[in-house]
Design a protein that fits this description.
The protein has 174 residues and is of the alpha+beta class. The protein has seven helices and eight strands. The strands form three sheets. Strands 1-6-8-7 form a four-stranded antiparallel sheet. The protein has a two-stranded antiparallel sheet with strand order 2-5. A two-stranded antiparallel ribbon has the order 3-4. The radius of gyration is 18 Å and the shape is flat.
C-alpha cells in the first residue's frame, strides 16, 4: 500500500468523523444573534479566535512539549522552564500574560458557525478552536476557515490522530 492509498483511507475516516460529529451550519443565525445582542458574552467566544501560536512566535517565545515533564512549557523571563500545562493553548496564554503580550492583537476572524456534538466541541476546544458550549442549548464551533470541506481542516485530522482512528492506529476506523 503506498502513501496515496493511506491518504485516501484516512480521508474517508475523517469524512466519517465529520459526518458523525458536525451537525448543521448556523452561520446566519449566529450573525443575526450578534446583530441583535451586541452585549451577549456567550457569542464573543465564537466571533473571533485568539491566535496564541502567532502571538508567541512573533515574540520569539518557544512553547514546546517537554517529554520529561509530560506537558507543555516555555522559558520564562528568567530563562527558567515554566510550570507544566496540559496543552499548547494554556502554556501560550500563560506566556503571553507573563511577557505582557496582548493576545487580542493576534486574532483570526471566525468565518462559519457550526452546531457540533458535545464530544467534538470538547475536542475542538482542546485544540484551541473557538467553541461556545450550551449556546441556547447547542454547542457551536466558530470555524476560522472556509471554502473547503470540514473534513479537510487540519484540526479534524489532529483530532482523528488523537483518537487513534487513522490507518494503522490502535482504534482504526478502516
Amino acid at each position: 500500500m503506498d502513501q496515496n492509498d493511506i491518504d485516501r483511507i484516512n480521508s474517508k475516516i475523517i469524512d466519517r468523523l465529520t459526518d458523525r460529529e458536525v451537525i448543521y451550519c448556523v452561520s446566519m443565525m449566529i450573525q443575526k444573534l450578534a446583530e441583535n445582542q451586541m452585549e451577549d458574552d456567550e457569542l464573543s467566544d465564537i466571533m473571533e479566535k485568539l491566535d496564541y501560536d502567532v502571538a508567541v512566535s512573533d515574540n520569539d517565545i518557544d512553547v514546546y512539549y517537554d517529554d520529561a515533564m509530560e506537558g507543555w512549557v516555555y522559558k520564562n523571563e528568567d530563562d527558567e522552564v515554566s510550570d507544566v500545562f496540559d496543552n499548547f493553548e494554556q502554556a501560550a496564554e500563560a506566556a503571553c500574560e507573563e511577557f505582557d503580550i496582548d493576545p487580542y492583537e493576534y486574532t483570526q476572524e471566525v468565518l462559519e458557525h457550526w452546531i457540533v456534538s458535545d464530544f467534538l466541541a470538547k475536542k475542538l476546544e482542546e485544540h484551541g478552536e473557538p467553541v461556545a458550549f450550551d449556546l441556547y442549548g447547542m454547542d457551536v464551533w466558530g470555524r476560522t476557515c472556509s471554502n473547503q470541506s470540514i473534513s479537510q481542516d487540519g484540526v479534524m485530522r489532529e483530532i482523528a490522530e488523537d483518537m487513534e482512528i487513522l490507518h494503522g492506529q490502535r482504534y482504526s476506523w478502516e
